[in-house]
Input
Amino acid sequence: MSNRVRKAVFPAGGLGTRFLPATKVIPKEMLALVDKPIIQYGVEEAIASGIEHIIIITGRGKGAMEDHFDHSFELDATLEKRGKSELLAVSRGVATLARVSYVRQKEPLGLGHAVLCAKELVGNEPFAVILPDDVIDAEVPCLKQMMDVFDERGGSVLATQTVEGPGISAYGVLAGSPDPANPRIYNCTGMVEKPRFEDAPSKQAIIGRYVLTPRVFELLEQTEPGAGGEIQLTDGIKALLKEEKVFGYTFEGKRFDAGDKFGMLQATVEFALKRSDLGPRFRDYLKSLAL
Ligand code: UTP
Output
């Protein structure tokens, strides 16, 4: 078994109902954050972290993602004819970004089921899972930070953020204790999916980045579907916890939930302000609004 994390799975088979009607025809993962589809941020993060193979779990109506990460001959030829060399580089750059494979999830039977669809392509080696909705702005890519923890500790790693107050109920929450040697690492002993605020075992909320050992596939296969016939990834990880070490890791950086309207608005404002071509004008515009 290779112990290097070389492959990243992007579950993108969900229905994206929180973004209707925009997602009736357009996959949520293809919604633009400033000028880039949200999934491209995750793919770029994976490549920058050293990932060699991207595996996207797709579903009905998700074909636009396959076209996006491929050559567009008509577009490229037209840009070339018009002498638009910078735009041509952008278009070609996306197609050559990474080695990408696709697996179709025939029914959206949950995140755990989506990850399980990648079992054959991943094989018997540790792998990453990136939820494309979660866009993370970080100096060192979030996944790279997690892969370093995996290399050091040799156990699965779940990205977490500290959530104060009742907002914690929207997340899977870790139980356990902070590592004495590194306060960003959390020694995980359990987890609870969407607990009531009073019942939350900690403030450590799981977000959409995971480094997992392949044992999780077998455990997911044995996981009984829960509400709505869905197989939850957290149930597979809970089973993994009984056999192997699992760590939480409070990454350095800021995460945006771009699969949610408000999160997308926050990300749009912050990413636009950071852009050298748009930022100054956009800042002036925001200041001009009588808020
Ligand atoms: P979400 O619950 O955030 O996504 O799942 P969703 O179901 O698409 O969106 P809403 O809640 O209806 O708006 C987290 C991730 O898991 C993927 C989704 O595509 C998303 O990236 N997913 C979810 C699958 O790939 N398959 C599933 O069966 C469920």
